[in-house]
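INFO batch 0412 | record 1 of 1 | parsing
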Amino acid sequence: MDRLREQAATSVVMERAKGVVMALDGSSADAAEEILHARAKAARRTPLEECWITLGELTPVPPCDEASTPRPQGDDGSAKATTDAPEAFSAPDDVADALSRLGRALVHVDTHQALARCLLDHLAPDLDAESVMIYVRRSGGGLELAGHAGIDDGLAARWRLVPPLSGVAVVEALRSGEPCWLEDFARDSTRYLLIGEPPERWQSRVWLPLRGGDGSEVCIGVLRGRPGVFAPRERAHLRGVVRLCAGRVRSFTSAAVPVVEGEADAVQSLFAALPVPAMLLTPVVSSSGDVEDFRVDAATAQAADLLGGPSGNLTGRRLREVRPDLTDLPVWQGCLDALTGGGPYDSEPFAHQETVDGVLALATYSVRVTRLEGALVVAWLRHAPSDRQEQRLAELQRLGSIGWANWNLSRDEASWSAQVFAILDRDPADGPVRLDGLPGLALPEDRAALRSAVESLLREGLPFDAAFRIRGGRGVRHLRLVAEVVADAHGTPFEVHGVVQDLTARRRAELALVESERAILTQHDVLQSERVLVARLQHALLPLPDKVIDLSGLRVEVAYLPAQAGIHVGGDWFSAVELPGGDSLFVIGDVAGHGVDAVATMAQLRFTAKGMVSTGSSLTGALSRLNSLLLHTRDAHGTATMVLARYHAADRRLVWAQAGHPPPLLLRDGEATYLPRPPGMLLGATSAPYFEETEHHLEPGDRVLLYTDGLVERAPENIDVSLARLADAAVAQPEDAPGSLSTLLDAMLEDERRDDVCVLDIRVPREQ
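INFO prediction complete | emitting tokens
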């Protein structure tokens, strides 16, 4: 996003500069772009820098002094002006790089204040600049501080306005159109009235004038705490800064709708006499024709406080200088809409803390913007306490979908709040309905109960709380009416107070909740039945031995634990059979998913694997055929992991292959290691899998654990941490007696099981 914003802002500068070249040379857009790039290349500048310079030189910029040598001194000690064509400007490479960065930063600058901060950030590292001040010439010749950085607000307020007097360096710089270099504080303090409290805070400074496109003048001051002259490199740097800033400042000082001088005093006098906060705004239009700011041509004394900006006279100031965040508020768009003929704009009420007779009080205001020919009149309207109470009551009724209704029985009159008309979907022009006519608005099946409640209230004075339904343009709505009687001194009812509430949303939520609960209960019953069915099917297909079994001289113990979380049965399975010739086959696998499909796929893989290996198939060949089975069998469940291991009793070799499954754990002499996994892919993942097998020699006393991932995986724990935890637990449980597998499972499965667990515990007896 930052990159796109940067690109968009840069494109705006480029398009403006192209427009200037097209207007001056009569060239096409493409030709104008080529001209800008050619100029930039010839001057060793970036295209963006060339665009800023092009925009700044629409009105010729008075050249700064020579950057390569110190300025010659006159008889009075002041610096003499020298001239140099803009095209002759050149700078060292490091200065050129710095100016390139400044050119990119300027695309995000849109006010004098932002420009001052940007320049201080740019100049502080290289020139030891401590402060930057930007003055703008106003009508009458006086100067106004439009932006500053590195100085406190108190000093800025005291030096905000500078009269057009001689002996002030910034005035002299603008008057001569030449930079004013102040590099000897002792001498300069006798010739000029220096800014600062105290002035010696800045031992050296320079005032750099530049002109905007509409003839208004701007002067940038760079102030340093250290004494001494500005070196040639530093002057080159500042000269380049002025050239770049001229184009940026031109957009700040673009033409605005002028105020007739003869009318200005009269308008300001009129606004000064107004008893309410108000302003007269004139739009400031950029070179592209967009309104980028508003100038305050007249304002009342109260306007500054409500605007939230600095106190004092706002006349002549830019609105965004007073309130920089104004463009993010709805009132800004309201001003633009009112200016383009969208009609008056009225803001939402807002709270404002003000001081009344020395006491802080919270008041409520709203802003009204009205177009006056080419200008805008902005006024703040203060709401009386009664207005606020009425507004709060209306908001309460709207937010709560509730309204009040009164029926005067003695005069046979009724009055409703606006919210009651909205709730009952009734046109206010038709007026309220009599109390005894309310039942006629209800659905036929609800009328009798509502009529009985109304009659009891009128006859016996019994209050009621009745629910009923109506049918309107928004469909059937569920309403509630609460009413009570107010009697006179003799106990005779003379008025009925009532409240009508729309309960449609709540009622629909209640009905949806009931339906959801019913669906959940039904689904739970279905899933529970499926679980029982699948568990029985699994038990039939995967019978668990009730004791330790002996295979090929090995002692094998099996454990299967279903998941405790959820109601589906998983697809974990095992197989341990003795093969012809005295060898044994050990298989453990995990089918993805749960339920009937997983169990069916498990059975298919279990019996097929046993059959393939029993008839002489290699382990890798069996895995390849099982992969094809998953891929091509109709309604296959998807994927599965598996370990196939063949134990050769004659030489105690364990040959095994795997398909995406965790490796077996070997325990020997009190140490636990995982057997290196041969290559093998998840079954059902690809039509061209690759499998390898490996072998490991077992010794007397060895223990091998084959297991499914439910034994080790714990979200969000890393799998390596889980495997290390299993190895530590197995080493800590060295029992060799039957049933020791249960002790290991208890140590590993402390929390609720979220997946099935299947384990084959294979032990090589110790030699007698």
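INFO post-check: The mean pLDDT is 79.
INFO record closed
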